[in-house]
Amino acid sequence: MTAALTVRTEDLSVRFAGVPALDRLDLRLAPGKIHGLLGRNGSGKSTLAATLAGFRRPDEGRVLIEGGDLGAAQEPYENAVVTSRVCLIREAGDRPDAVPVKYAVGLAAALRPYWDADLAGDLLDRFEVPLNKKIQKLSRGKKSALGVVLGLASRAPLTIFDESYLGMDVPSRNLFYDMLLADYAEVPRTIVLSTHLVSEVSAMLEEVVILDQGRLVTQSPVDALRGRGASIVGPAAAVDEFTAGFTVLAEERLGGTKSTTVLGDLDPALLAQATAAGLEIGPVGLQDLFVHLTGVKS
Ligand SMILES: Nc1ncnc2c1ncn2[C@@H]1O[C@H](COP(=O)(O)OP(=O)(O)OP(=O)(O)O)[C@@H](O)[C@H]1O
């Protein structure tokens, strides 16, 4: 039985040639949740994922992984007990690729204490990954699918997918999301999905970490983040009148109807005013908040 792990970073910095890729990060990833690790290109997501998985030694500060059958907090770097329980799947693969798929599957089965062979077989069938083909001869999408299979079937108490599924086409990615949710419901564990494609994964996430230029912008449950703003939909003139004075995150117009996403709290008096004006109030989209918080100009 997999028991989810808790991850903490304390004052974590990683530098390349003196330039910080991660800058004094203090984080806590709660056990048994699906976390989104979000940030623009170059924000430090892959560096953080690699450091959490023990692939990289921090330059300052530390990573601590605890709970489950690990018990007290331990650092992952050069620690085989921790790293056998932490599965990082990256687009690059990190596997020998002049060997058939079945070799990589056998290796994972030998190294992963919670490996589920039935699940692996089922997923290889569903993603149509041929067991006897050499990994280097697989298409990019099938290589990604192999990574997804190894990540899910490892049932590692901390499983990190670092944009490893982006090589797959949309139906395969949707299958990955479905299989991830189904297996996570059966065997809860701590999952991290690193991505800049926020809208695609936002419905699955329970908590998010947003990085920008190696620094922590925010760490928050998704619901709390969505509560930081609202979308107002209705007749364009009424929406414009109501949203004047708010920070506008996004606007969309279809004929006479407009949807404006704003930052800020809507108290009960404002909500009543909106209803009286015939406006509908909805939650703010994670993508809009992400764009705002990381300063992307749309
Ligand atoms: N091996 C390396 N050598 C030198 N600099 C690196 C190395 N790996 C990452 N960096 C730098 O560290 C910073 C963070 O990169 P990282 O790959 O962690 O970002 P990312 O958020 O995963 O980006 P992307 O979404 O583009 O994959 C970038 O400025 C990058 O150029």
TrEMBL record:
Protein name according to UniProt: ABC transporter ATP-binding protein
Q: Which residues form the signal peptide?
A: none
Instruction: Respond yes or no to whether keyword ATP-binding is given for this record.
Output: yes
Name the species this protein comes from: Kribbella sindirgiensis
Write out the entry's keywords from A to Z. Answer: ATP-binding, Nucleotide-binding
Which SUPFAM superfamilies does its entry note? Answer: P-loop containing nucleoside triphosphate hydrolases
Q: Which residues form the ABC transporter domain?
A: 7-238
Molecular functions per Gene Ontology:
ATP binding; ATP hydrolysis activity
